[in-house]
Structures are given as structure tokens and as C-alpha cells.
Amino acid sequence: MLYDRPYMRQSPSETAPPKTSMTTTLIVITVAVFVLQQVLNVFFPSAFGRENTFMGDWLSLSGQNFQQLKVWTLLTYGFMHSTAGFFHIFGNMLGLFFIGRIVEPILGRERFLGLYLAGTLLGGSVYLLLHFNEYGAVVGASASVMAILTLFCLLYPERPITLLIFFIIPVTVKPKWVFWGSLAISLGGILFYELPGHSHVAHSAHLGGMLAGILYFRYVHNQSHSFFGSNSINARTTVEQPAWFKRRKKTEAHISYKVNRSNRDELQKEVDRILDKINASGFGSLTDGEKQTLDRAKDLLSR
To answer: Any idea of the CA torsion for 273, 209, 243, 274, to the nearest 10 degrees?
Structure first.
């Protein structure tokens, strides 16, 4: 019965302050590393006044570093940024803030962190695949942010979002077009700019981050081994289904689950899914529709 579930009872822990979001934690860590880079550049410059190379030698990702068995650089490069300009870290952290605060409540802290790091690892792996015998290094959280952005686009392809072009011009677009546009830019950037050596942007790392988001959506989120997901309810799934499988009228403002409550088995599956979501993300992550389902199920399933 629902009343037997420990997280359905009132407890003192419910009044405890909420944990800091993983999005905020990642931003703080990344900014702290950037500040440390600047401090080393100012107080411990290399020869001829150049920037300090200590962190770059040990934390940035390059074919040379990897051949020297610095395998940890597959992760650490994602927390470093170019100190030549502020916009590199500013753009990445701005994207992480706006997208992360939407995606993290759906996945929960642990899975969100796992996807973020998977984007870092896969982005670095694709970069190494193309530049293993080169000396150039890559830094930045772009691959991780691309993984989070890709998952958001696949979850809500039809939800209009507003982007600020050059941080000034507002443009409203559907996430599915952001996904296809990002994929085209990454592939084109690799073929026409990165491989010929005409650009310092690691488009290959961006592509690797997108692959991480796609793989997570396909094999972890909907668990149907289909790129377009599944419309069935999986009791172990703790995230909401893709928006494009929920039919809605143009005048509707929100998307919500429609559960056949006359079928006891289907209702039980939906309740189990919601309770698993509470375990993973907390009661506050539930939608209004999910809360209503729990309230009605208390009476129906107790008969």
C-alpha cells in the first residue's frame, strides 16, 4: 500500500534545507578552477611573461598528454577554460545554468552528473581519435554542455525556447532545430575547419558530447533501443517521456500524463514509476499530474 512507503510519510527530514543542485556545484567548481588558472598566470608566469603552463601540462587534453599516460585528462580538461578571454567560460556556464536547471530535476543529481561527465569523456575521446598524434590541446566544458543540451532537445523537441544571438538578439526556435543545427555545425566544422587546421574550435569534442546525450536518451531514458523512444510506461524509468509522444491540442499550455486508471495493472505501473522518481529526485520533482495520480491511487489501490 502507498501508506507503507516510508517516503510517503511526513518526517523531520522534509523540513531540512534542500541540497545544493549539481548544476550549481559544477558551475562553482569550474569557476574556481578558472580563478586558480588566472592566479597562477599573474603570480607565477612562465618565461617572457607568458601564461603559466603547469595546469595545462597536467590537466588539459592532448594526444601528447594521453601518450604520457595522463589518462585523467579525459575528465579534467572539461573543468578548464582558455584564459585568453572571458567569453569561453561565460558561454559554457551560462548554457549549463539555463539548461541544467531544467534537465537536472528530471534526471536527479546523480544521473545528471553522470550524463555531464559522460559528455566530457566521449567528447574527449572523439577529439583524441582525430588528433592523437598532434600537440594541440583542448579545454572547456562545451562537450558536457552539449550532452545536456542534446538530451533537452530530444526530451522536448517541440517546446519553443528563446535564444539570445550574440547575447542581444532574441530568437524563438524549437529545440529540435537547435539539435539538428548543432549537429550540422559540428560535422561541418570537423570536415571543413578542424581537420584542415583552419579553426581552434574543437568541433569533434562538441560532437562527442552530442553523442553522449543521444546515447543516454536512447538507452537510459526510454530504454527501448529506439532513437524515437517508446510510448510504454517503464516502471524503472525515473524521467518523463518525450514530449512528441504526448498528443495535445494547440491551445493546451502544459503536457501531462494520461493514465488509464480503470486498468489496475496500468495504474500500479504508473504509481511505481512515480514512487521511483520520488526516490531518485525527491517529492518536489513531481508534476501536478503525478501528484493527482498518487492521490487517486491511494483510494483505488487500497480496495
So the answer is: 10
The model's pTM is 0.69
CATH number reported for the structural domain that contains residue 132 in this entry: 1.20.1540.10
Specify the length of the chain in residues: 303
Whether 117 and 177 map to the same domain: the answer is yes
Q: Which domain holds residue 290?
A: 235-300
The 10s digit of each residue's pLDDT in 241-298 is 445 444 444 444 444 445 454 567 777 778 888 887 777 677 777 788 888 887 777 7
Whether residue 258 sits in one domain with residue 205: no
Q: Domain count for the chain, please give it.
A: 2
Q: Other C-beta atoms within 10 Å of 123: how many?
A: 33
Residues 6+ apart with CB under 8 A from 77: 59, 60, 61, 120, 124, 137, 138, 139, 140
For residue 126, give Cα distances in angstroms to 78, 153, 210.
Answer: 14, 21, 11
Q: How confident is the model at residue 16, as a pLDDT?
A: 55
Q: Are residues 146 and 241 in the same domain?
A: no
| Beta carbons within 10 angstroms of residue 188's beta carbon | 12
Same domain, residue pair 260 and 113: no
Average pLDDT across the chain, whole number:
80
